[in-house]
Amino acid sequence: MNRLTLRMKLGLGFGSLLLILAAMGFVANSSVGQLSYISAGAEQVMTKTYLASQIEAGLEKQMAGVHVLYARWSRGLAAA
To answer: What mean pLDDT is predicted for residues 73-78?
Structure first.
């Protein structure tokens, strides 16, 4: 290392920094791509969860209506 001039040492230092920055840029870019993929999957899961909850709420409303009708019908039979 003693035989290298100051210019060569500075060049190697800045060159290594540029190489490290390029590697960090590549890792960051691939991480953003993975994040996009994971986000799309999470959005699909949330959509399915929302639709399932809407179906469940609709079924509960229907069953409540059936119970009311049955109660009225059974009271009518008891009165007769």
So the answer is: 72
Bigger pLDDT: 46 or 66?
46
Helix, strand, coil % in the chain, rounded to nearest 5:
90, 0, 10
Q: Evaluate if pTM is beyond 0.85.
A: no
Alpha-carbon distance of 63 to 57, in angstroms, equals 10
Question: Distance of CA 36 to CAs 26, 29, 30, 33, 43, Å?
Answer: 16, 11, 10, 5, 11
Q: Any idea which residue has 């009518």 for tokens?
A: 76
Q: Identify the burial level of 79 via C-beta atoms within 10 angstroms of its C-beta, where 0-12 means exposed, 13-18 middle and 19 or more buried.
A: exposed
**What is each CA distance from 49 to 8, 36, 41, 52, 64, in whole angstroms?**
61, 20, 12, 5, 23
